Amino acid sequence: MMQLVRKDFILITKSYLLFIACMLFISVLCLNLDVDAGGIYIFSALLAFFIMGIGNLVSDHEQDAAYFLLTLPVSRNGFVLSKYMSGLIVAILSWFTTSLVLLICLLLPISFRFTGLSIFLGLSWSVGIIVIVLSIILPVYYAFGNKAIRWLIIIPLLLASFSSQFVHSSLFASIVSGLSHYSTEYVLSVFLIISLVIYALSCIISLVVVSIKDF
Amino acid sequence: MTHVLELKNVSKRYEDFSLDNISFILPKGFIMGLIGVNGAGKSTLLKIMMDIVKRDDGEIYIFGKDTRKQMVEIKQDIGFVFDDSHYYGHLNCDQMKQIIAPFYHNWDEETYQSYMKRFGLPTNKKLRTFSKGMKMQYNIAVALSHQAKLIMMDEPTAGLDPIVRRDLLHVLQEVVMNEEVSVLFSTHVTTDLEKIADYITYIHDGNVNFSEEKDLISETYFIVKGDTALLNEQNSAPFVHIEKSRLGFQGLSKDKAEIRLQFGDEVVLEPANLEDIMYFTSQGHKDLN
Amino acid sequence: MKIIISNTNSSPIYEQIASQIRNQVINGKIESGYSLPSIRALAKELQVSVITTKRAYDTLEQEGFINTVAGKGSFIATQDTQLIKERKLNKLETTIIEVLQMAEELEMPKEELFGLINFLNEEEK
User: Fold this and answer.
1) What is the CATH number of the domain that holds C31?
2) Which of C40, C60, C76 marks a domain boundary?
3) How close are the terminal C-alpha atoms of chain B, in Å?
4) Residue C28: phi, psi to the nearest 5?
5) ipTM score
6) Is B179 in contact with C40 (Cβ distance < 8 A)?
């Protein structure tokens, strides 16, 4: 199974380099605007998803690679689990890379707020967003193939635009005031755990879908 | 264990097509051709053997192991060759090999390099730019580089030029010089691959029409030629199918004694080749329908 | 040893292989003790199936032309070539007598029969 994860990372090497370049460029551009570094993470998660996540998924499917991969000595379960593991690694990688880029930016003469909390905020956002989006996309991808996926890539866009509207709504304000009883760390931890639970459930669905599927 | 492959009543039903009770065996160390017209179910059957398509019923044993329980282990010893390249087109041979090699316990770099050299494949060009023949050769090189005991090939010669095809025959015969290795290939064009096949399994309309030693088949089936006026309701029975023209008739039969009894020396008997058998059988099925 | 397979020849391939080896033994072109290629090597060289060459060897073994030693391969058996030739000559004589009888039945003059034999001989070539 680890060979399959290894395969995913050989395939996304180029995308990863592109991602690093993008993050460097964007960080230098945005951070002078006196924003909290935490916000960069949300952006980086979406970018990571588009550059690495989708690229990896689609290159596996468009070329009918599932057919080829299943002739290799791997089980159907391994085939699915490896994909979920790669997804998680991509999420953590995006967080790690962004943190690294931000740390480098600290050396530059630009001003932005960057604290330990920013890094933790980044972790839960990066991992949370990527993992939730993949939770929706992967089962659909296994069940219906890449045609369905073309439509699903608008999910993160919808999520992004929806959340920007949501932030200004009264509901959001009441949620925020409700949550303000708890510490930020606590809220973020709960979010992270919930997203990982969703990811695990999605993985179980995918395992079932693939176990009966004809490729 | 003498059978490398054993299928028992394998069935798969689709809405518009089904494979029914497919059974046959391939003894160790031999080459089997899986023949049949396009759409007869050959590719589906190969996919079922590899567990890429789930079967509805039946048992499949490869190397004597149950494919339901030990598929991963079994696949370690199978080299699979596709009818078309399913590799990542944006990678070159070396990158692709780096992905594949770690999957196999018995990856043999020396063998891989020798096939790359023999086929003259460039290591730094993207697989997407390869011709059909080169893709197939690369596929063969990969399939033969982990000491596989069973080589499965789905339409390996379709769309290949005669030189590449002829070379493939040599490669396969070299492979079975090792008596531990067996080969199963599917094809709808029965040309040169059938020359080296020891066994032929003929799939027609989702059923096994026969699975036999090739030499026995050419001794069993005959093309009968004669004057159309000789034919009547009664003596048409021993034929699989008859084609009539003004100049005479041609028919496929496997009942030599009955033909001689009915027609005596008035007809000519010629051994039928696989293409004759495929053609007349498919026409014969149309007659019935 | 020489073997030439013809795909247009109507006799089965295993028989073509067997008869060519048999003839070369009878005519002394292959001597006894000669080590034959393995079944698989011969199949590869002739581009025929393994079962076909196996069958050819089996036939020759039954007829006593070759011996197969497990693990060592197949060898040309010691032949009484004189005896084999005599047997073949006998068979030829019987066939000729039959031919002569048929010609007589057809009331075919001897010259015509020889002419026919010559004609067929040319054709064969």
Assistant:
1) 1.10.10.10
2) C76
3) 42
4) 75, 15
5) 0.85
6) yes
Contact (Cβ atoms closer than 8 angstroms) between residue B273 and residue B190: yes
Find the CB nearest C51 among B169, B173, B215: B215
What letter does residue C109 receive in the DSSP assignment?
-
- Identify which of B44, B71, B93 has the alpha carbon closest to the alpha carbon of residue B206: B44
Amino acid at C53: T
Q: What are the pLDDT digits (tens) for A27-52?
A: 777 766 666 666 777 778 878 877 77
Confidence of residue A22 (pLDDT cuts 50, 70, 90): confident
Please indicate, yes or no, whether residues C70 and C89 belong to a single structural domain of this protein: no
User: Measured between CB atoms, which of A3, A71, A75 is closest to B50?
Assistant: A71
Tokens representing B128? 């997407």
**What pLDDT is stored for residue B45 in this prediction?**
93
For C3-46, the pLDDT digits (tens) are 888 877 778 889 999 989 988 888 778 888 888 899 999 998 88
* Residue C115 domain boundaries: 81-124
Q: What is the pTM of this model?
A: 0.82
Question: How many domains are contained in chain C?
Answer: 2
| Whether residues C65 and C87 fall in one domain | no
CA distance B244 to B251: 8
Q: What's the angle, vertex CA A137, arms to CA A136 and CA A139, rounded to 5? A: 80
Residues C31 and C71 in one domain: yes
Identify whether residues C47 and C87 lie together within a single domain. Answer: no
User: Using an 8 Å Cβ cutoff, are B143 and B81 in contact?
Assistant: yes
Measured between CB atoms, does A165 come within 8 Å of chain B? no
Residues near B129 by Cβ (< 8 Å), separated by ≥ 6?
none
Q: Do both C58 and C85 map to the same domain?
A: no
**Any B CB within 8 A of A74 CB:** yes
Please, is B220 exposed, middle or buried when counting C-beta atoms within 10 Å of its C-beta (0-12, 13-18, 19+)? middle
